[in-house]
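Now for one protein, fold included:
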Amino acid sequence: MPNTHAPPHAPADSAIQSLVDQAARTLNIRDDTVAVLRSNYRETSVQIPVRRDDGSMVVAHGHRVQHNGARGPYKGGLRYHPDADLTEVRALASLMTWKTSLLNLPFGGAKGSLQIDPAQFSRRELEALTRRLAISLSHVLGTHRDIPAPDVGTDARTMAWFMDAYSSRRGYSPAVVTGKPIELGGAPGRTAATGRGLAYVLGAFAQREGWDLAGRRIAIQGFGNVGSWVARELHLLGAHIVAVSDAFGGIHSSRGIDVAELLRTTSSGGSVTDTDSLDDRIASGDVLTVDCDILVPAALGGSVTADVAARVQAELVVEGANHPVTPDGDEVLRERGIPVIPDILANGGGVTGSYFEWTQNIQQFTWSEQQFSETLRERMTAAFAQVAEVAETRGVTLREAAYLIALGRVAHTVELRGYV
């Protein structure tokens, strides 16, 4: 299971709500509409008892929060982590609503969790937990109701178990989850979609600003699925990856890290610090303040605080994780003139790729990876162009512009459907 060692820190619900309220005031959205957007449609918590291999019993707790489904079926990841409680899931479900809206996908926002540390369970135990969770939540899920996907602590194998358990009750339903193995209806290109999508957005920013990404120095916090694919894609464009980190530490090299060696080490289960190189070892958090051109925080929410933001040496911050820059950190970066490409845009390639997989499952037709990647590039580039245009026209940050677009679309749909 990926990233099981990295404790996720959800964006504070109050921080997201502040952005929503600010956008609502700017757009003059009706108070009754805002009241709908502030609350969740459904919150489901379930008890998951499973017999362990040693004969003992564990009783885990699962959650699924469906925030808003005005624009389509709920969509959001399934996270396995002991800290993924209902408060965290609520915040992440709301974030998914704005992300899917900004990317103009026919989805609403949801999020789910199982409060366990998957590293402490055997494969059989994880499968049993996943299958029971799927059955327990099956009444609120469905191809046209709510479609989970992998998140922290889960992967394609988890989605295979989940889909199979759901299908045992409802008939073969490959489109009930995304991020599945290719053999079970997964889409070629989906695994790389979040990292590639970020690279596409960064490329669009660079083109707009007249930057050449070749030779640019990149620092990446977090080297799971997102961070590793960002490193691959930007390395192919000629950028120099000068610092990376994971939960066990980081490495730094002003001349550029050997990305191929790094990928070999981590793909076999090692840490970035296990690479056989002469690169300097640094603490995990120090990667955020190394001398670089572009910083990609792709690990933890809340990692770029005001104190860290004051020491950031990058010219641009691109949020690979969910809400890694705190509101206070945002303000410091704004005062210093360092732009931030927000999470609901920068890491939106994952849910966009999930949309492609979902539509292919419904049609029972598979795209090539080339078609997948080309369509992803078109959508991510178009989304960035719209956000940049609104930011320039209204004189706001990219984050504020993203929320203006996202909130406007959801509010309009809520009113069209007669919710208020």
About this structure: The two ends are 43 Å apart (CA to CA). Residues 1-10 have pLDDT under 50 and may be disordered. The first strand starts at residue 42 and ends at 51.
